[in-house]
């Protein structure tokens, strides 16, 4: 019986958190943000690598017809594991 009451209390707490979250307005005003570049697969690395590294990788990726992530990995700027 005590275990059932504990589970019910946990469920009530989770439901209260969910309801509070559902009442909040969207952080972005309900609109999706556009990717920063034509290579959104590397947007997660911005702030880690220099902007010149991104520009060079994006130019090379466009020229070769591959993703900028592949260019950064092939050039040794990041490893497959780090990506």
Describe this structure in words.
With 83 residues, this protein is mostly helical. The chain is built from 3 helices and no strands. The mean pLDDT is 79.
Summarize the structure.
With 83 residues, the protein is mainly alpha-helical.
Estimated radius of gyration: 22 Å
State the distance separating the first and last CA atoms: 49 Å
- Tally of helical runs: 3
Low-confidence stretches: none
The 3D shape can be described as elongated
Describe the sheet with the most strands: none
The protein's oligomeric status is single chain
The H/E string reads HHH
Fraction of residues in helix: 40-55%
State mean pLDDT (0 to 100 scale). Answer: 79
Strand fraction: under 5%
The structural class is: mainly alpha
Total strands: the figure is 0
Keywords:
mainly alpha; 3 helices
């Amino acid at each position: 019986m005590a275990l059932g009451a504990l589970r019910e209390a946990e469920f009530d707490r989770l439901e209260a958190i969910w309801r509070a979250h559902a009442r909040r307005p969207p952080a972005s005003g309900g609109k999706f943000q556009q990717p920063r570049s034509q290579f959104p697969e590397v947007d997660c690395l911005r702030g880690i690598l220099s902007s010149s590294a991104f520009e060079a990788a994006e130019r090379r990726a466009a020229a070769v017809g591959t993703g900028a992530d592949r260019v950064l990995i092939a050039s040794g700027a990041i490893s497959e594991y780090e990506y």
